[in-house]
Design brief:
Layout (H helix, E strand, L loop, with lengths): L5 E7 L2 H11 L5 H4 L1 H16 L4 H19 L1 H10 L7 E7 L2 E5 L4 E5 L3 E6 L3 E6 L2 E6 L5 H15 L1
Antiparallel strand pairs: 1-2, 2-3, 3-4, 5-6, 6-7
């Protein structure tokens, strides 16, 4: 009889971890498509400014929102990293556990459990694994996994792909 698999590790949610997570899990979208909303906001703000009697501060606020949206698209990764680094979970210790039931992570601020039955797809990236499930996707960094844990997830990925 084989013993059930259990792997547990602890690491810090630091900037390098968040950067790796962004690189592995952020969807690559067409840049021109992303700027549509910012252009529309800026044009709408200009139209309010030029063609209505509404207070100019409101119009300039809408134009500024368009500019802010454009900056958030242009500097998407630094914007996301900054938001993560000012969160209360930044620079805290996270315990990751992988077993026969699924993947669970626990820190002082958050606790997540993803059952293998809920995972619809497992994708290997250059640095780790993406687990797709009904609530979205989660990234598991390969740098915190042992060889046995990597093989275990790889075996689960083979089962899910069939």
């Amino acid at each position: 009889m084989t013993t059930p698999f259990l792997y547990s590790t602890t690491y810090i949610l630091d900037k390098s971890h968040y950067s790796e997570t962004f690189d592995a899990s952020a969807a690559v979208d067409n840049a021109k498509k992303g700027y549509r909303v910012s252009i529309l906001l800026a044009l709408f703000g200009m139209a309010i400014l030029m063609f209505t009697g509404v207070d100019p501060y409101v119009a300039w606020f809408v134009v500024a929102l368009g500019a802010l949206e454009a900056l958030s698209i242009r500097f998407r990764k630094p914007w996301w990293l900054a938001r993560q680094m000012i969160s209360k979970a930044a620079n805290t210790e996270l315990t990751l556990e992988i077993n026969e039931d699924g993947v669970s992570s626990k820190s002082y601020y958050v606790e997540t459990n993803i059952a293998w039955d809920d995972v619809s797809k497992i994708e290997q990236t250059t640095l780790g694994w993406l687990l797709y499930h009904s609530a979205g996707k989660n990234y598991v960094s390969g740098r915190c996994l042992s060889g046995a844990a990597q093989e275990f997830i790889s075996a689960k990925a083979l089962v899910k792909s069939q």
